[in-house]
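Its record is retained below.
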Amino acid sequence: MESNLLLCVLLLIPAFTSSDFLLTHVRNIKKRNADNDLVVNGIEIYSMKIDSKVTSRFAHNVITSRAVNRGNVSKEIFFDVELPKTAFITNFSMTIDGVTYPGIIKEKETAKKQYEKAVSRGQTAGLVKASGRKTEKFTVSANIKAASKVTFELIYEELLKRKFGKYEMFIKVKPKQLVKDFEIEVDIFEPQGITELEAEGTFITNELQNTIKKSFSGKKGHVSFKPTLDQQRTCENCSQSVLDGDFTVRYDVKRTTTDNLQIINGYFVHFFAPTNLPKLSKNVIFVLDTSGSMSGRPMEQTKEALLKILDDIKEDDFFNFILFESEISTWKEALIKATPENLDEARKFVQHISVGGLTNLHGGLMRGIDILNAAHEENLVPKRSASIIIMLTDGQPNVGVSDTQEIEKAVKKAIDGRYPLYNLGFGSGVDYSFLEKMALENKGLARRIYPDSDAALQLQGFYDEVSNPMLIDVELNYPENEISDLTTNSFKHFYDGSEIVVAGRFVDSNQNHLTVDVRGEGANDALSYSTQQDAEQTAQAFQEQQYIFGDYIERLWAYLTIEQLLEKRITATGEEKENLTAEALALSLKYKFVTPLTSMVVTKPEENEEGIADKPTEGAGMFTAPILGSPVNYGYGSPPPWYTSVDGDPHFIISVPQKKDAICFNINENPGTILNLINDPVTGITVNGELIGDKRTNSEANIQNSYFGKLGIANKHMDLRLTVTPEKITIQNGNEKSGFTWLDSVTLQQAGLTLIINSKRNLVLSMGSGASFVIVLHQVWKKHPLHQDFLGLYTLKSDKLSEQTHGLLGQFFRPIDFTIFEIHPGSDPKKPDATMIVKNNELTVTRGWQKDYRRDPKHGVDIPCWFVHDNGAGLIDGVHTDYIVSSLF
């Protein structure tokens, strides 16, 4: 799991257009009341409070917002708040004029049925969506009468993780209007005692610095932030709020012993964080994607990070670099020691890394594994050392072994549990679920690297987390006959500054003592000892009852168990996956957590409408309606990785990554018509396609389907032409001409061109600037009375073309934004209609599916999208006939 589960909340409400304000606020269009700058569009939020209580790392957070309608008519009031992705919502309620409407946690399938029922009534949905690197946004609204008040209350819980020697609690602050009574209050209770406490905000100015109050003594810590109205203003007489950013609390605890065991009411939690151990030397293989799509800023940032990492590598460490594009290359044939001379040579190597070609991910990863395995077998590295593989890629495998399941099996077999694999996915073009599953199968994790200005810092930051291994093969063993349910208790590595947490349930709920055996391998010798704790010791430590919320150890155990069960589901199949799902669902319902398997149903006062709150894993289907201008997954399946394509009859799919969604349209033209798909005057690359039809008109439907039967790809700067039909592939370079059939398996590389033919399936083409395409071959039964063979085109690395690129596909290589609202039933009950605003045009669109045949040319994969009717009218520039050309080149 990315450790960052996505959260989706569905509120079934009458159709409305929404906005994207962040922390608790009301929708407004910036219309300010001149007499009262606390009132925005008739609504005043007079109180907003975030109250957090942390007990032994487990945080219980209550967000309360109170608002009043100062207008003369009913108003729709929005409650928006950003939560950490690792958090689980446990409760939500809204109180309107003294009447409370609570949320109820139910199985997710129930929510889905309610959603479909609501769509049939013309209702739409609120949502929670991913809104940043660390957060996801909860949104709900209520229609409030004039002079009425509403109170929203949201409760969520999370286990704070220790990183770089500190626990961190993150609160997003962005009310977007002045709030008379704004307050953040954090109370921390740690039975081990608190050694340091800090709080900071990215929005904190010099004037606000003194408003952060923090103190700690013994086991207690306290942080508060309560700015006055004047302190919230961006300037002396301004009505805009300066509260816009991240508020972070960090702390650590005393560690007089390596372990801290706590026992309460039949449950226990064990915190393990040894200090003052000598660091293990490490053996690191960096497997780096150097395909054409990494050119420019991505590779510059990667080099910047690698050079800083080389400065931090210790002389006792061993390392190597593996580069993969179409071909595989290595810096050295074996792991080498990080001597000053070798590090200098490595820096020169990194500075001269070049990019080009396609993405042979399997080849690069397997080469790295082979080198690391050989180092251990030949005793080239110390026996007491920690080995890791770190792979960075920005794309998907498209040459060599490209089937992700085959890659997963090969990698798992080769690593064989000996060391962790860490996969870093750069940008939006990666198949993150594949990277995550492969990492988890090999005792590692996956992490997204966002292509922003700080990408180099993100890369270096991840390395810093794993750069100081203290122990390997750590096991925390408990008496089997005493413990019935135990979270993960064996760990491949323990890193400096982190913490291992294990929780469990006793067979006998009255048991009040526990002994644990700790085992691990350190730099100099084995770690082996036993420790014990009884419930009386815990009770003595917890006499300050005001800091304890309910049975916190039991809830911590449930939280950690659900989190790990969901993680195991990623790699499980068949009956095992069903059992994991059933167990996680039962716990989610019992402890009232909104997880990917449960939903929160909220009954609203307007005609007993019901809302649904979901928390799906990344890539899971979400049944939601949009918040205006927000990157939203609109449901009915997983969002596609970023690409554009045309396939089938002919169906165009335009991926919109910032929305995590897609738009699609068809072009209906006669056989023989040639359409311009891509035209880039800067790089000289053009792609045109000629339509073919069925062998005869379908008499029953009285239609003539059309498909692409011939594609022409040219680079005029290189005097290069490629003609592709379902029968053959012809390359003309100047006066030289060569040809292949689809029966061939070919890898061809020449100046400016890489061509791979995967027999009877597809061909992968990279040319010029690094732009990459996949052409899929569709073959039908030769004696089929109606259909004939045809082609599909998928653009994978179109960002290497210039901003002047145009054509039916090319115009969408630049970012496109759209807004969906007024979702309502369509002619097909399974495909609702909606209104789309795109390119300043208002269109009626339909929710549907198109097929992606890149990996499965026979069956394809359904891609959800919003379908634009009438040959893409209003979406494409001009009209579709503008793209008809006279010849293939």
Remarks:
- The first helix runs from residue 108 to 120.
- Confidence is low (pLDDT under 50) at residues 1-35, 122-130, 619-641.
- The radius of gyration is 29 Å.
